[in-house]
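Hi R.,

Here's the input for the adenosine-5'-diphosphate complex you asked about:
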Amino acid sequence: SIPLSFFAGLGGSSREGVLIKGSNYMEMLSKVRTVVFDKTGTLTKGVFEVNGIHHSKLQDEELLYFAAHVESASSHPISKSLQKAFGKDIDRKLVSDIKEISGKGVTGIVDGKKVAAGNEKLMKELGIDFIPCHHTGTIVHVAIDDKYAGHILISDVIKSESGDAIRSLKGSGIKKTIMLSGDAKAVATEVAESLKLDEVRSELLPGDKVSEIERIINENGKDGKVAFVGDGINDAPVLSRADIGIAMGALGSDAAIEAADVVLMNDDPRLIAKAIKISRKCMSIVY
Ligand code: ADP
Ligand code: MG
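And here is the predicted structure with adenosine-5'-diphosphate in place:
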């Protein structure tokens, strides 16, 4: 039977904004020694600003118009940011046949034209002859009617609490912090270095993140359990595969919340160390 103090622990943690889905996860959480993070929306705000628009024949506004419309059905942080940057109402009647290709971007029909918006992987998959962009940043390439139309350079910022969050994890006996990202290498490296993470892997597709978490469990399992923290739809398979999956933020995707073992009620990454502390305290009372 489950000791009563587990329930006390679950109640106490929920008051702190940490939802633990069962007593076995409380125990797992107390044994975590490696914490793996998704980047966008977890360590960074997930709110991208447009820094530049480059194109050949179109006007800036036209490129943004097609990008924002083709992105209008997605709740990906990049999609939301491009809609906001467009700044005008999106006419959903003009948009059809939207396909979201996770880790790559979106395609669809906008105003009778075939539009694709996403990274180099998407352009390669569609056979679009794109012009590589050498700026450091997240790049959304846009193709219209199978022809390269230009790119939008966007950037996100690190959450103000992320530095403290990593420091308190390190200070409470977490041996290794790792970031897995689908974003460009230069962007991911910059975030990881500024937060002093131990390892970083970039340009990963959702499936690559699953194999990475398996590798990390293999390599670090002797030290303790491996937690993964993420919030997006893409993160669900990784959240399930980790020893313990932590979904971050009340605004996390339903798929992520469903797949997770622990749900943090807001998007403050400092809650991760707090959750681990609560679980250790609870386990020390139980045993
Ligand atoms: P992360 O690991 O940062 O959470 P994702 O796996 O969600 O990233 O996406 C990886 C990359 O795929 C993004 O950096 C972007 O280049 C591209 N991408 C994904 N979704 C979209 C989208 N809706 N629009 C444009 N690009 C996208
Ligand atoms: Mg993500």
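One thing worth noting: The longest strand covers residues 147-155.

Cheers,
M.
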